[in-house]
């Protein structure tokens, strides 16, 4: 009985965790992109690295959202 009650709660918790990870990666990526663009505007070569890391974070957010978050959220709501 406990297993049947615990399973939906754990699934909802995993959806929440993936939502937080996706949000954190998106925010981190946007801040890195903005800082990189500002650094490139002042002719600093570190800006290129920051833009690249921002892009990696945004791609990571997309992959987590489409690969983990959305399928689990759909299964939870179905």
UniProtKB/TrEMBL annotation:
> Mind telling me which InterPro entries this protein's record contains?
DUF8151
Q: Write out the entry's keywords from A to Z.
A: Membrane, Transmembrane, Transmembrane helix
TM stretches of this protein: 12-31, 46-65
Q: Which residues form the DUF8151 domain?
A: 1-76
| UniProt keyword Membrane present | yes
One short Pfam name that applies is DUF8151
Descriptive protein name:
DUF8151 domain-containing protein
Q: Which organism is it from?
A: Halomarina ordinaria
Q: Taxonomic lineage of this organism?
A: Archaea, Methanobacteriati, Methanobacteriota, Stenosarchaea group, Halobacteria
